[in-house]
Amino acid sequence: MKQRTVIALMVLMIMFLSGGCNDEQSGGKDTPAVVAGKTYHWKLVTTWPANFPVFQEGVERFARDVKTMSNGRLNIKVYAGGQLVPPLGVFDAVTQGSVEMGHGASYYWAGKVPAAQFMTTVPFGMTASGVNAWLYAGDGIKLWDEIYQPFNLKAFPMGNTGVQMGGWFNKKIRSTADLKGLKMRIPGLGGKVLAKAGGNPVLMAAGELYTALERNTIDATEWVGPYHDLRLGLQRAAKYYYYPGWHEPGPALELLINRKAWESLTPDLQKIIEVAAAANNVWMHAEFDMKNQQALQELKAKHKNIEILEFPDEVMAEFKRLTQEVLDEEATKDPAFKKVYEDYKSFSEQNAEWDALSDGAYREVMRGQ
Ligand code: CA
Fold first, then answer.
1. 95, 176, 277, 339: which could form a disulfide with 158 (CB 3.0–4.6 Å)?
2. How far is the CA of 249 from the centre of ligand 1 (A)?
3. Is the domain of 135 the same as that of 59?
């Protein structure tokens, strides 16, 4: 009797360790219980340079979190831009499934999916808190899945820079007249707005910015915020540092996943990815807030020749008016852009009303004290 019990227990244990009894008996069908024992080795390619602060750091942090939470069942090897595929080859690599994951910003793929720009940021759009509300609690992630469906992709928000700086200028911007002929490195929709204002937007990689600005090949450039800008040395190339980054008020970064690879995972591993992405969405934003405030102090203490200036109201009003024109024009070109735009717009209008009574009102009170 005793021996039988021991044998029965051993059989149960073996079945348990092998990943479950039902599947073994039903002919080893690939149900989650069986796959639960499987170890995955995935590749993740990013659009960022190796050791790029916050961005690349956050992605590596995500991979470590997934490994720890999955107890080693999902191992993600992270490759910086250019190591496995070119930085802007990330989207195609994940779509085609040559790698399982990617990290970048959805507005890099504006040429393929114009609507995806809303998932990163649009000029005069919402800040990080509004963006997260729209993505997680509103229709954002649902719409994201919809526009990425034809590309065999699934995406999660992972990282946010917060409101960026307006950029470095080698001349003062006193009125909209100063925008005429202004040659500025500013990508995407912000660039289209500048062009409408009479400026000359140019595209340029990060590595070229310092020299171009220092030699007056360009008159201005935007990049990120104090932390990243100081590392590029832009404070030595131009004197006027303008705020706020009207063109990028709360860019969300994205974790891209090949949909077939995603669907091959057990629900627990999917949940681990979702939770680790959300955790690092918070971490990157927090890290940006801390590093930017420290870098601002460094800038003020060590580079006293720099003038930190707010854009004139007139310039902001003009950019805002032209942004509306740009967005309306883009909406007529692409039905998906129009659909996402309408959802984003109604959400952000409602968000602005609530913000006026909450964050906005509170900030006013604090400013007055
Ligand atoms: Ca930027």
1. 277
2. 9
3. yes
- Output the CA 87–ligand 1 centroid distance in Å: 16
Cα 120 to ligand 1 centre (Å): 11
Shared domain check, 96 and 81: yes
Domain limits for position 265 = 36-160+250-289
For residue 3, being part of any structural domain is answered with no
Convert the chain into a string of H (helix), E (strand) and C (coil): CHHHHHHHHHHHHHHHHCCCHHHHHCCCCCCHHHHCCCCEEEEEEECCCCCCCCHHHHHHHHHHHHHHHCCCCEEEEEECCCCCCCHHHHHHHHHHCCCCEEEECHHHHCCCCHHHHHHHCCCCCCCHHHHHHHHHHCCHHHHHHHHHHHHCEEEEEEEECCCCCCEEECCCCCCHHHHCCCEEECCHHHHHHHHHCCCEEECCCHHHHHHHHHCCCCCEECCCCHHHHHHHCHHHCCCEEEECCCCCCCCEEEEEEEHHHHHCCCHHHHHHHHHHHHHHHHHHHHHHHHHHHHHHHHHHHHCCCCEEEECCHHHHHHHHHHHHHHHHHHHHHCHHHHHHHHHHHHHHHHHHHHHHHCHHHHHHHHHHC
Ligand 1 centre to CA of 359 (Å) is 24
Instruction: Tell me, in angstroms, the distance from the centre of ligand 1 to residue 150's CA.
Output: 28
For residue 40, report the distance from its CA to the centre of ligand 1, in Å: 35
Q: Do residues 225 and 323 both lie within one domain?
A: yes
Residues 212 and 326 in one domain: yes
pTM of the full structure: 0.88
> pLDDT tier at 204 (50, 70, 90 boundaries)?
confident
161 Cα: distance to centroid of ligand 1 (angstroms): 9
State the total domains in the chain: 2
Calculate how far, in angstroms, residue 297's C-alpha sits from the geometric centre of ligand 1.
20
